[in-house]
Structures are given as C-alpha cells and as structure tokens.
User: What shape does this take?
Amino acid sequence: MTDVALGTLPVAVSDELESPTRRALRRLFQRKGAVVGLVVIAAFILLALFAPLILPYDPIATSWSLVRKPPSAQHWFGTDELGRDILARVIYGARASLMAGAISVGIALSIGVPLGLLSGYRGGFIDALISRMTDAMLACPFLILAIALAAFLGPSLGNAMIAIGISATPIFVRLTRGQVMSVKVEDYVEAARAMGNPRWRIALFHILPNIMPALLVQATLSIAAAIIAEAALSFLGLGQQPPAPSWGSMLNAAQRFLTNAPWMALWPGFAIFLVVLSFNLVGDGLRDALDPRER
Amino acid sequence: MLNFLARRVVQLVPTLFFVSLLIFSLQHLLPGDPALVMAGEERDPAVIEQIRQQYKLDQPIPIQYLYWVKGVLSGDFGESLRNKVPVLSLIAQKLPVTMQLASMAIVIAFLIGIPAGIVSAVKKGTAWDYGANLFALWGISTPNFWLGIMLIFLFSIELGWLPASGYVPLSENWRASIASTIMPAFVLGNAIAAILMRHTRSAMLQVLESDYVRTARAKGLSERSVILKHAMRNALTPIITLGALELGTLLSGAVLTEQIFSIPGFGKLIVDAVFNRDYAVVQGVVLVTATIYITLNLLADIAYILVNPRLRA
Assistant: This one.
C-alpha cells in the first residue's frame, strides 16, 4: 500500500535517490518509540494468534477452588472471581481488542475516504451536503455517539465495532476532504486532467496515493482510540459478551473486588494501556517519518 | 466580523438539521418493532398501543420526524420511560454535577498542561522535554476508567484519604464536595492536560523561532521576560480556545468516570438510560451534548476573533 502511496516522484529522480517508501521506513525505524511500539504490537498479535498453543489454561474454564487467588507460580496474574486464569483471559482478550481496533477503523476508512474524495473533488452541493453531515456527527462526542449507537444496535462485539466504526468515520471524511482540496490544485493533477483522464481515475490513481501518508497516520492513531472505545463499551456491557474475555469487561468485574483482589484490575488495564500506547507511538513515529518537511 | 458571524450562524442551520436527523434515526436502528422494544418487559397491548401513539410510531417516518422536531423545539424531549419524568428536567438536574466535574478537570488540565508545554518547548531536547513528552504519551494512552479504578485502589482503599464513590453537592459542604470530585476530576483532566501540553509545546516552539522573539532577545531583554511577556502571550491565545473545544473529550470521558465513581451526573444518566433501555433519554442526552458542543464551538470562534486583532476587520 505504501508503495503506491509514495511512489510519486518522477522516475528519473527516484532512480538516483532511495525510494520514498524506503526512506519513510528507514526514518520510522530510527525512532526508538516507534520501534518499541511496533515490537509490542507484533508481540500482542502473535500472542493473540497462538494463544491456545502457548497457554496451559482455558480462558473460560471456571474453578471454585481457585476463586480470586493472588498471582502465583501457577497463575502468574492470579485468578478472577470465577477462578479463571487472568493471564489467559488477558491474552485471549487481546483478540477482541485488536480485532475491534482493526475492523472499526476499517469500517471508518471504507466509508470516510470515498465520501471525503467525493466531497473534496466534486465540490459544490455534494461537498456542502457531506460537510454539514460530517459537522453534525463531529458535534456528538465520539464515545457518546458510539455508546448511543451500540445501545440502539444491541449489545455484541460486532455491533460495538460497527458503532465505533461509524463514530470514527467523520474524522476520515474531513481529513480526506482537506487533503484532496490541497492536492487537487497541484500541477500533476492538472496534467492528468489535461491528458483527458476521467475524474474517477484522477481521484483514485492521482489524488488518493498522494494523501495516503496522512490517512495512514490518522488510521494508526484511530486504532488506538478504537481500542479504548471497545474497552469502554465492553466495560459498560455493550461490547464483548461474557464469558468471552475482553479487557473492558474484566475491568468491570474487577471493580467489584478491588478491596480483596486488586490484581484483577491491574492486568487488563495495563494491557489496554500498553497496546494503546504502542499504536500512539507508531502513529507519532509515522507522522514524523512521512513528513516531507523533515528530511 | 458581523459578516463572518452571520455566515457561521447560517451554517449552523443545516448542521443542526443533520444532528436532529442523526439522533432521530437512532430509534430506527432498534431491531424489530420500536414500540415493542421501548415497552421492554411490558407486554400489555394497551401500553404498547399507548407508546405507539405517544411516539407517533403509527405515522409515516417523515411525519414522525416532524412531530419529534416540533417537540424538541418547544422543549419537549419526551418522557423517561423508567420514571415518567420529562427528559429535559432529568438532564437539567444532572448537568450541574457534570459541569462542576468538568470545570475542575479543565482547571487541573490547564495547571498541568500549559506549564509542562512551556517548559518542554523552552528546554527542548533536554530531560525536561523528554519527561513532559512521556507524560503526554501516558495521558493520551491511559484509559480513564482504568486510571480511575487504580486511583480508588490507592487513595480510598490503601490510604483511606478520599471517598471511593458518591457525590456531595457544593452547596451542601464544599470540602466534602471537593473530596468527592477531586479524583474523577483529575482522571478527566489528565487526558486533556496531555493534549494541551502537546499543543502548547508546538505553539511555543513556533513562536520562539519568530522574528519578534529574536528582536526581543537582541534588545537584550532577559530570557525570562522574552518567554513570559513576548512568546507566551502569543502562543497561548489559540490554546485558550482549544480548551473550550476539548469539552467533547470531557463529556465522553465523564461517561465512564462518573460510572466508576458513582457520580450522579450527565454521564451516569446516559449509561443508566442505556441499561434501562430508556431510549428517549439517550436521544435527549446526545442532542443536548451536540447542542452544547456546537454553541461552544461558535463561542470559541468568536473569542478567537476578539483576541486576534488581525481577524477583527
């Protein structure tokens, strides 16, 4: 994707210099924060994927003899109010969180970017219509809109992802529109038009690749926000349904046993923090690495 | 300026129209017959029929919308299905609590975020800058409900300094009121402090490179006076208006924070309404939030013009 995104320098020049994608990657890897973020995200993805192979415990198997046991050699993170292994639940919980982050941002991108392209490139009435609709959605605070949507759609992880995705859409519409507005007056777009390219072709093949870096940065930061939102919805009982593990619902249960089982609250929250921090680090790193002003 | 204002206000009309459309259409997301869903456990056909008539659910959708807008415009947001109280009076009752929380949070955010931003810009590249940036990353990445739970564990359970939950109104006992809101206010302010810090830092960095700061330094002014009198004043103007715009973040944050600290405010209202399937309340809360946000946005724009003489023409 980034290949297309940044492969826009004239061919003669890019032969002599390193390709823009490689330059961006090199600069990304120079940033310690971003590298740490990437490593943590990769670790969580691997853990989530291979959870059944690594873990000796089933995340939903209850045991009355193991209710609320503090961390020990057998149960590193302790056990919860139903005697389930918290480490197992934290690792399985990563599935719900990472999936919610990726899918809801995917939804936001696939609605927001086309609308933004249309709005920014066509202008006129369509632009005014889409822009006012975006304003209206942005006027409702992100989480409140997501909660309201999830409440009306009904509680489930799938609906939570839809609710978060829709709530995150207006940011992408606005970002795409703004980027298109600034790019469409560039000479190469004019040249493409002069060559008789149809409008959809110019939008998809000449404008979209050039606004990819900004979208990539926003998408990374939005994944962080979406993961927090999923945890918040699950905390309220509007996301992942029990007994399936999710970090938000684990925190909700933990709050009731804070006095005698504080470890129940520590680990799921720390997992959310770590993953969200990593996506924010990568997002910041990408922003710096893709900024053409900083060479 | 008047021209600009008029244009801004005219633009609000379609925005508000779409807000109303968005909130109205929420109820059509309900699976199945909305009257049945709204009735909840109630299965009495007479009650369901009453709900159908009350919400004009027997009418075509555009007519339903017109009835709804007509109600909203005359201050009738419908009635809470749970306790048969008008939605608007429920909101009016809960809003002051959240306002107290929000104002305390904003004060905390400014007290932490702005000095941190100034220091990190002035001492760019030093340990101070590094530390302030770490703080900002932490503030942006910490889920506020987790922070709230951890604070309760530390300050209420382990140390026993502050009440874990509950709310005392300011008018009743101001000390107890502050004690009951200081933790949630810090939780809310923390995230905004981080955002303010980042904006202050970049605004200060930009100003510090500008010509007039160089001139001030060349005149031999002390570094202290250059930063406090020349740089800060110009850098902070946009930050003040930014504070107003973070209200959305505050209200979003208040939902979970009030839930965790059992504070009977606006955020708890929407959560309780969601649990009780009290859809009129959910719609009312979203509508009021959006209206407050749009109004503040407009005020921020006006304030921005007022403090920036170049835009006043």
Summary: The longest helix of chain B spans residues 87-122. Chain B has a mean pLDDT of 83. Chain B touches chain A through 53 residues (CB under 8 Å). Residues 116 and 180 of chain B are 27 Å apart (CA to CA).
